[in-house]
Design goal:
mainly alpha, 9 helices
């Protein structure tokens, strides 16, 4: 009975807070000053047909760099706490067999998943998509590979290399914006090109591609460490 009364009291408190929120809500008919500037000036200044991309990659590009850095930190912490406790050679002596259907499906689907992930971040300046979404799609392909080949050990070096190179290149392009354009991560270090075409928006497609590769590699590294931890258990 006491538990029910406590639950009712909590629900009543939440309802009271929500009522106050909705009762004081007033619909905004005009954009705030900053949002209005992005909406009006963004396409002409940056040449990106996807306004969200303009904001994420350029106008608040430093914030996006921080998000990628946080993801890298998380991947590093997981790798530290889930370090392998046994030798790979010992684990490889008794490999777990997987379904032939799974092997066949992975061989067919993984290339398509990787290509689609690349499409999502390369074309992020033209349509909905971007580096984080494309990177997550690529990581899902990596997960399928691990399911089909649980004893695989050859991909960690490649994952680390891609993560490192893409991160260094990302920061390098940001610094280039200071000297060649108007600030850090300014996409106009390259010509903005013709609006609405694949070769437009300056360096945004390159930046988004680097973000996609970095995010995909970091998520794949997390999966790799989780896979190793499961095998060691």
């Amino acid at each position: 009975m006491v538990k029910k009364l406590v639950a009712i009291a909590i629900l009543a408190g939440i309802a009271f807070m929500l009522y106050g929120l909705f009762a004081s809500y007033t619909q905004k008919e005009t954009l705030p000053k900053t949002s209005r500037y992005y909406a009006i000036k963004g396409p002409d200044e940056l040449g990106s047909a996807n306004l969200v991309t303009s904001v994420v990659v350029t106008y608040r590009g430093l914030d996006t760099l921080g998000e990628v850095t946080i993801l890298f930190t998380v991947a590093s912490i997981i790798g530290f706490f889930l370090r392998s406790r046994t030798k790979r050679e010992a684990r490889a002596e008794n490999p777990r067999e997987t379904s032939e259907i799974l092997h066949t499906g992975v061989a067919f689907l993984v290339p398509i998943i990787f290509v689609f992930g690349a499409y999502v971040f390369i074309g992020g300046h033209l349509s909905p998509g971007g580096g984080f979404q494309g990177g997550a799609i690529i990581a899902s392909g990596t997960l399928l590979l691990f399911l089909a080949q649980p004893k695989t050990s050859g991909g960690h070096t490649l994952i680390t290399f891609v993560e490192s190179v893409s991160g260094i290149a990302y920061v390098g392009i940001g610094i280039a914006g200071i000297f060649l354009a108007n600030g850090f991560l300014d996409n106009r270090i390259l010509p903005v090109g013709e609006f609405g075409t694949i070769f437009s928006a300056g360096a945004i497609p390159i930046i988004y591609s680097l973000i996609g590769l970095k995010v995909g590699a970091e998520l794949s590294a997390i999966l790799y460490k989780l896979k190793d931890a499961k095998e060691d258990a």
